[in-house]
Every structure is written in structure tokens, then in C-alpha cells.
Amino acid sequence: MSDGVKRWDIRYRAHNRRVRPAVVLLPAGFGPRRPTPALPLVISPHGRNVRAAVNAEKWGELPARGRFALVCPGGQGRKLPLASWGWRGQIADLARMPEIVRAALPWLRVDKRRIYAVGGSMGGHETLLLVGQYPKLLAGAVAFDSVTNFYRRYFDFARSPGGRRAQALAREEVGGTPRTNPRGYVLRSPTHWLSAVARSGVPLQLWWSDADKIVIDQAHQSGVFYRELRKRRPGASRPSPGPGATRSRRTRTCSCQQQWSGLALCRQEIARRSPALCSTRSCAARHTASPYLPAPSASARQKVHQRDEGDDDRGSDGDDGDGGGGEDHPPLFPR
Predict the structure, then answer these.
(1) Domains assigned to the chain
(2) Residues 6 or more apart whose Cβ sits within 8 Å of residue 89
(3) Is 240 exposed, middle or buried (0-12, 13-18, 19+ CB in 10 A)?
(4) pLDDT (0 to 100) of residue 329
(5) pLDDT-wise least confident of 50-54, 83-87, 210-214
(6) Torsion on CA atoms 292, 296, 297, 299, rounded to nearest 10
(7) How far is CA 307 from the centre of its chain?
(8) Separation of alpha carbons 307 and 310, rounded Å
(9) Between 325 and 115, whose confidence is greater?
(10) pTM of the prediction?
(11) Helix (H), strand (E) at residue 264
């Protein structure tokens, strides 16, 4: 950890009342005797099987350089702590992070107008769900190498290292396979929330690599998500590449330097009062953007949540092997 950054370990109760850890990073020098000014807060959900402390370490000195607070939650899925894969309770916990941080560290002041989410792999997956399910929370978001179609991802696991084990974990966490419980996988897919993301007006960057060997076939994950999102705003403009552009072809994951660059570009868009959708493929360093999309009304947001209210990732009868109710939410992009 950099000398310019101070680490604070806190705990919180997850949606299932289980106590989970979280790591908060701040510029050094602040504490109970020296409260912070109002700082931006970055919520960083971790990748699959990545602990909160490991996720926090990857940020290095960036909280000091950018003068922001960072929270890395431990996470909790329906069943699994490190493979939550966008469970609605986990997304609700991410949305509560500003309140959790303020309760645990009352001397830390969070600027409510500058709350961001940044994540890669499963963390990017959950970042996109956070945008779609809590559209008024964030001032910007950056997602790297994200799973956007969890239905399809289940089958793609078999083509990745450790894929059979990942499929077994997915069956445990979701409660069945995409064929026995399609509803469970669809509700965890950012593609299901595309319209809500498009309406949110949240500045968003999508980064992905064609060379990713873990979240494979990004053309049918982040690529499809991006193209479908643009269809909801067909007149989108294309700005020139920003400071975060990179031409790295072989990178498995994006570095935190790239994450910070992406976040900085989001903040520039906010400063210009022109929130944008930005997409960068690491193999082509390509940026595109859409015009401002107004935030949904309270009634529209309520309708989004009503679709998910009371749904269990298992079938409607509660049997792990039954996909009851799945016909109401067919996969947008099935295999």
C-alpha cells in the first residue's frame, strides 16, 4: 500500500444478515481527529474469487492521486460470498455502500453527487447491474471485461480454465442451470436491464479485450451489450479518444491505471454537463458516445424494481431444479 494511502477495515451486514468485510482506502492524513472534506466515493465490486483486500491492493496510490475514497466490499451472493454473480441482494448491498461507509467511519464525508462504480470481470458485471437497478445513485461508472449475458456465460464457462468448477458454483449460487432455471440467469444479466441503463443518464465506459481468456467471447458479452445500448440512442455521436485510450491487445484484465483513466473521462463528461456512453475495446482503442439520456422518473424506476420484486433465482415453486416463471423473462441473447 502506498504511503499516501491509508487503509481502513470495516464490516457490514449483507442482505442475508451475514457479516462481511470491506476495505476503505483514503488519502493519508485523515481520521477521527481530522475529518475529510466531501470526497468522491468509488464503489469497487470484486471479480469472482477475489477478496476485498486483494481488490483494494490493486488500486495502489490512486485514491491519493485522485483525492477520492474507495470502498471494496467483500460481497455476498444468494449462497456464495465470492461468486455473487449479480444476485439482487448483492446489488442492493452495493447501493448501500455510501451509508455503510458513513456509519462505520462517521468522520468520512462523502459527496453524494460524486459516487462512482468501477469493476472488472464479475465486478464489471455487477457495476452494470448497479447502473440499471439504481439509476439515480451514480455519477459515473466504468466496467471492464464484463459478463453481460449470464445465460450464455454458463455454457462458455466450459471453454475457460476451471470452467467445470465454475459451472458447479453457478448451479449452486443461482439454483439450477439456464435450462432448468432460465429466469435466474436472465435476472442476473445486464442485458435484461438494457432499457434501464439507457434511460439512466449515467456516464458509462465499457472496456473489453478480444484476447480475454477468462471472460471469453466478449463480442457476445460487452460487444453485444454496447451495440444494443446504442440502438436505444441511434443518433449517438463519436468523440475523439480520451486520456484513457490504450492499444494493449493481449491484456487479460485492465489495470487500475486504466480504470482511473476511465473514471477521469467520466468525470470530464460530468463537468461538461454532457453525460455520455463511452466504449473502448482494448484491441482497437475505440471511443464512442451517446448524447445525454434523461434519468427515468420515479414511477419508471418503480416499474423496473417491480419486475424483480419477490422473485427468487430458483423457480417460482422454490425447487432448485425447476425454472418456473422463466417464460416471462426469456433470455435476450440465448446461446
Answers:
(1) 5-316 (3.40.50.1820)
(2) 14, 15, 16, 76, 77, 78
(3) exposed
(4) 37
(5) 210-214
(6) 170
(7) 20
(8) 9
(9) 115
(10) 0.78
(11) helix 256-271
Measured between alpha carbons, how far is 313 from 315 in angstroms, rounded to an integer?
A: 7
Q: What is the largest CA-CA distance in the chain?
A: 57
Residues 140 and 47 sit within 8 Å (Cβ to Cβ): no
Give the dihedral of Cα atoms 46, 47, 48, 51; nearest 10 deg.
Answer: -40
The sheet with strand 69-73 has its strands ordered as: 5-13, 19-27, 69-73, 39-43, 110-120, 140-144, 204-208, 277-281
Coarse DSSP helix, strand, coil percentages of the chain, rounded to the nearest 5 percent = 35, 15, 45
Which pLDDT band, with edges at 50, 70 and 90, does 172 fall under?
very high
The whole-number average pLDDT for the span 150-161 is: 94
- Residue 162's identity, in one-letter code, is G
Tell me what pLDDT residue 87 has.
98
Alpha carbon distance, N-terminus to C-terminus of the chain? 43
Cell of 43: 464503489
DSSP string across 134-161 = -TTT-SEEEEES----HHHHHHHGGGST
On the question of pLDDT at 37 being above 50, the answer is yes
pLDDT band at 212 (very low <50, low <70, confident <90, very high): confident
